[in-house]
Every structure is written in structure tokens, then in C-alpha cells.
Amino acid sequence: MADTRLTLMLDADPGLLPPAGRIAVFAPTAAADLSALPQDRVHVIQGFKPDHDAWAARGYDCAVAPVGDYAAAVVFVPRAKDLARMMVAQAAELVPDGVLLIDGQKTDGIDSLFKASRARAECSAAVSKSHGKIFAIHAPGDGFGDWRAGAVTVPGGFVTAPGVFSADGVDPASALLADALPATLKGCVADLGAGWGYLSARALERPGITQIDLVEADHTALDCARRNVTDPRARFHWADATAFGADRGYDAVITNPPFHTGRAADPGLGVAFLRNAARILRPGGALWLVANRQLPYERALGEFFAKTEEIGGDNRFKLLCATGPQTAPRRGR
Fold it and tell me: What proportions of the chain, in percent to the nearest 5, are helix, strand and coil?
């Protein structure tokens, strides 16, 4: 495997990292290469459940937030600008007199982040490779404090946070599905990919629901959901929605499934949500979902359910209801 930017930078300057002390590594995906760092000193800070679990399975010390003291920090830049700046501010606060490495893709704004950082602190030259850059900030001090961002309240009184899906307000697709859910929805319901809780909050307007399980892989989004959904029928699960739940455990599943991994379109992710919905639904249960019109979910639904119908939508989104969950995918249709 070709050397990554982190490896190239540390090979070029072996003394860049201090010889002792823990290293906070913010938001590395499961595909990131941390081999240039001493594993016994690395503390992975990752709030996305699949990536968190992947690093833990490799033997890394993992958490969703910093704990204790650190000698250095590494930030893998996320897609959301506000979240990236907040991570840099948080890392700088942890190592005010140490070194902070920032690694990211051009498509995720690393160039503008490098320029803004140089205006605030002493930065190294950047190492460029594979359409991205890595650079070091030496003794960042308190020069990034104004980049820290907290929860915000959006129209409707809902709380969101930087980097969560639809952080600026209610997602129109979720609103469309919420309006279409039947008044007779009842029993035990799973909200797969619940985000900051809007869809569950609306679903709980139905008195027949006895319990709703909000399943969300983004720890920050789930924290927001806890604030937004205070109904005692709600249960909160930090989990991968593609694998969560016991077989045949739910009367209904509601979902606005994601279809991107980072910036790349990944319809297979949404299909994995649908497959799991079929697994966890009771034989008489129903899946209610919303999707962008161009996404070809009907074929997958035909494999996992006996019947699928479009129940509404608009020129951007379609609303689908699938019933008759199958114990095994149906083929040859």
C-alpha cells in the first residue's frame, strides 16, 4: 500500500511528535491509516458507530469524546465545515503547547482550512498527496476558541449540532414521510437512522405506538434526539441501523435511509437499511420510507417484501410502503 499523507509527514520529520504521552486522533474512518502512530499511545475519538467499532476491534482505545491529557492530536477533516472547525478548536484546546496534525481531502475543504489556520497560528508546510493535504500546527494555544460550536435550535424548537444530517432544519423528505404516516400506526416501532429525532417525534403523535426505538449511528445526532424526543415511549440506541434489532421484533419500521458515504453516492447503504427492516419486522408489519425519486429501491423491496406500493410524494421524493417481510430474499421475480 502506498504511504499515506500522515506516514509521509512523520517520515519526513521523525521528531514532530513528542516521544511520550497520548495522541488524540479525531474522526478517523475505518479506512484511515494510523500505522505511523504508536498504537499504545493512540486514543481514537470517533462518534460514528461502525467506524468506532472497527477501531475497537483492531485493539485501539476508543471513545466518543476526549478524556484526560494528551501530548499531541490528529484531526481527520470531516465533510461539514462547522464540524471540522469545531474539531480543530477542540484538539487545539487539548494540546495548546503541543502539535496538532490536520489531514483532509480537497473536496472536504482542507485548502480553506489550511489558509484559515495559518492566519491564526504557526503552521508547517503542507504535504500534498492523493487530492488532499496534511499540515501541522505548532503550539496552537487559544487561537481557535471561536471555532468551537455547540448545539443550535432550528425552527420547530428542535436541537441540532454541527455535522449532523440536516443540521440547519427539518429535512423536507422526513417531513413528507411524517405527514404521510397513518394515524393508526401502533405497537412497537423502529426508526432506522433516526438522526436528531424529527421523524420519531412526529410519529409519537400517534397514541397507538407503545414504544419507538430510535436507532442512530452518529453519537452526536443521537444526543440531540434525546433532547428532542422526551416522550417516555422512546428508547435510544447508538447502533448501526443495518444490523440492529432482533428478528421479527417490530410492528412497523420508519426510515429516511442515507444514500451517501461521505461525498460518494452509495445506494447500497439504503438497501442495507431495507434488508434489515425486513428482518426485524413481524410478519404482519410494514415498512414506511421516503427516498429520492432517482433511487431504485423498488427492486430491492421486491426481494425483501411481498408487496410494495407508492403512497405519495412529490417531484423530488417518493413515499413507499412495503408489507409482507420475507424470511429470505425473493429471487427470480
Answer: 30, 30, 40
Fold of 5-147: Rossmann fold (3.40.50)
Report the DSSP pairing between strands 72-76 and 61-63: unpaired
Q: How many CA atoms lie within 13 A of 288 on its CB side?
A: 26
CA distances from 14 to 7, 9, 247, 286, 305 (A): 10, 8, 52, 58, 57
- Decide: pTM greater than 0.85: yes
- Match domain 162-325 to its CATH number in 3.30.830.10, 2.140.10.10, 3.30.300.20, 3.40.50.150: 3.40.50.150
User: Which residues are within 8 A (CB) of 184 and not within 5 positions of it... i.e. 6 or more apart?
Assistant: 206, 208
- Distances from the Cα of 319 to the Cαs of 39, 96, 308, in angstroms? 47, 50, 11
The most distant pair of C-alpha atoms in the chain lies apart, rounded to whole Å, by 65
Return d(Cα 18, Cα 71) in angstroms, integer.
Answer: 7
Low-confidence ranges of the chain (pLDDT < 50): 1, 260, 332-333
Give the model confidence (pLDDT) of 94-133 as tens digits. Answer: 999 999 999 999 999 999 999 999 999 999 999 999 999 9
DSSP H stretches of helix in the chain: 5-12, 49-57, 81-94, 110-118, 172-180, 198-203, 219-228, 267-280, 297-304
Question: What pLDDT score was predicted for residue 266?
Answer: 67
